[in-house]
Amino acid sequence: MNKPFYALDKPKSKGVVLGNEALARGVFEAGIQVAAGYPGTPSSEIMETLAEIYHFYPDFNIEWSTNEAVGFQVSLGASMCGARAFACMKHVGVNVAADAFMTASYAGAHGGFVLLSADDPNCYSSQNEQDNRLYGLHALCPVFEAINVQEAKDIIKYAFDFSEEFKTLVMMRTTTRLNHARGDLTLGSIKKAEQKDYNFDEDRSRWTFLPSNARIQRVTQLERYEKLREVSNSFPYTILNIHDGAKIGIISSGIPYSYVNDALLKLDLTNNVSTLKLGMVFPQPEDLMLKLFEHSERIVIVEELDPFLEDFAKKLAFEHNIPIEIEGKKFFPRNGELNLSKVIKGLTGFLDIPNPFINLPVDTHDLHKASPRPPVLCAGCSHRHTFYALKLIEQKYRNASIIPDEMVEPCYSSDIGCYTLGFYKPIEAIDTCICMGGSIGMANGIAKLHNGPVFALIGDSTFFHTGVPGLINAVYNQNNIIVVILDNSATAMTGFQPHPGTGQKITGEPGTKVPLEQIVRGTGIQEDHLWIVDSNKLKETTNAIEQAINIEGPSVIISRHICSLLEKRIHRDKKVIPVEIDEEKCSNCMICISNFGCPAITMKNKKVSVLQLQCTGCKVCIDVCPNGAIHLKEDT
Amino acid sequence: MALDTKNHGNIKKGNHIEEKDNYNALCVGIGGTGVIRASMILGWAALQEGFKVRTAETHGMSQRGGSVSSYLRFGKTLENPFMIEGDLDVLLAFEISEALRNLNFVNKDTLIIASTNSVIPPSVLTYQTLNIDMNKCVGCGNCLAHCVPNEVFLESRYKNSYTLIKGPTRRVINGYTRVLQSCTGCSQCIIDKVCPFDAIEAYNEFEYPEISAITKDIQSVAQDVLILDANEIAINAGNILAANVVLIGTLAGMNRIPLSENVLKETVKQFVPKKAIDVNMRAFERGFQEGVNFRQNL
To answer: What domains are defined for chain B?
Structure first.
């Protein structure tokens, strides 16, 4: 295996890397001892890159934890032992870890502790676009942001030193546009972790939050916060750039600052405005902001999502009685992701000058429109097969009712994973998706009122993550739900990461497999309320669903088949036998396309045909076709 | 380009590399076909040429088959990976309708290289259904009796196991025929003219335009447009997977951005498996020739 660029011990070499690779490199350069987290777009590649680096330098610990709370706690424990620790998750993962985070930030760090929160403005692959800078304010925890790939590496490395110097937790906040962007990176030197015994810190009262201790720790936290407010002014990655005679001051940070930089270049205004670029966005550098106010007549704040810096700047001006105009969200949207066009539009609006680029693009008004490509489940996806079985049963009950509108529709409470794509046509078997593990919890409540069958659809990794408590609740309170665990043996949506049920660790080394069915039985689900079926066997699955509908009390169906992409990865050399259509038998009824929806089946010259390269040979469509017109290619 | 006020005083368009502070390129196509790999190759080549490099991607949630756009900027002063709309120097499209989708980034001087490769999204088929004109329908039920998905289910060899979906895709409700969710949109009832009142019409939510129409649209917006069958060229070179390298070769042959042929070739070699280097070099050469031919014809 060749050493990838980001694992090279060659300081000053240059390469083009992904933001997440640069962040992993920074963590590695800082001499990390323990890294833990849970996969989530756009953060996943950071841990995966660290695991790759681990193959060449196996002298630190790294794990995928069961969920973000556990991951955070694992790293916190390591910090308590005086080691450098890293916790990695997406923005909504921080909500899961928040219970520990809010209190741990009282005690602060012993060994350097950095929490990475990867935010997702515009919800590219998330259920919301919450702004996690607000967690910094909430927990009085310093928050760092980088403007490019190089800074990302440098700042996260520095964050560990900072954490130790001020005994504070640090949140490194990134956004999709940094995590998933590529840029040039110059490598730094690798710090070797200090060789000593890392034993648990003896200061018991610091880590035991009995009310009497918590009150003391709260005071420590506030004192630390005062110090951090001061330090923010001399943070090495915070840069105040005052231009003589400039009347306009711009405050920005992170990726939005990179847009500001390019917008000023485009508008030829670089030398006509003063800028304050923040590396530490909480606490904010009050002295530098005041200095900018002093040298400007008007201030504009360019930030994504919430008016976090804007609110602070306005408060600061008010407290110091400075009558300066401060604008922000009036010119930049509070929702979605910023980009260069939006920043130019906002800045020209603020400056009240015409936007010179408005007529630059060609007029596409009269041209054809490209058809959209909504995301679909892959060819051979085992989730599609489980969904199809569910829809077959639903159809059966609909047909049995005399007037279709009279049937009480089943409710499919669902969760976060590839299977959420079942919301779209032709499946349309997803009715809810709020948060990790939420499917089962919400089903408990829906079942108390809804007259039709109530399903909770949840993936294997999500079930381990936070699904288990909901199932225990259903058993304990006798809530009548059918939990369908869609077990494809991977955390597929984020890139096939292993989890407890796969028994493989992030490093590729074997762990101990935690059997899903044992957990289900352990919650008190009776043997006659539990079915374990192969997703790719339609008959088996439909039978299980029908039986489950007809019995009282909570039941569980584990519908299991490995993710088709993962299977292809594992068995690269295995020969795939695709299916083909017997044109004589095919009636072009399109059930295989419009109801089943496998992307490997399409229409060619008004006839149903199979895309041979895409077909995975799962054979399920053979059972779907009512005419027996689909068969394996070798059959003929 | 025209609005970059600096450094473009005496540029001749078409045949030469334009001297600028920053260059903007956009690679578009379908997930899993080497779009992002192509932009990485261009990015590493730009780094070798001594530029700052920024790339960013937008893609859908699914692992395969979605639209992918990879934005690439390199130069001296830039900081962010996104260009503004209409400010593109080069558009490389690996699927033809994706070029159409991204024309808002193009101005009339943008160089467009697009492959005729066309991938019709499954949604075009799965979203098609039927409408019944309530003013014409009398609820005679003739279409119910002739529904192809329905009929075939009654005769199905899976009748015993799957009697459950043999229901019609339409029903007569309150004297009118209604299309149910289970309608596959196969339109056989329209083809067979089963409705005596002509009340059934096909409804397509999405349509994929004809390739010739897309080509015409692309050619109408910019001066320098090369549309070629990169897949065919790649297959002739030895492997369809090298289609992305064909377009990189074409771009090199055009000589429009300051990434030299040799640097691009060396970078391609680093990015493909050892055993595939020969195929990719052939693909590059053939693409390069296409680019040179195009340039000489300007």
So the answer is: 22-121+208-296 (3.40.920.10), 122-203 (3.30.70.20)
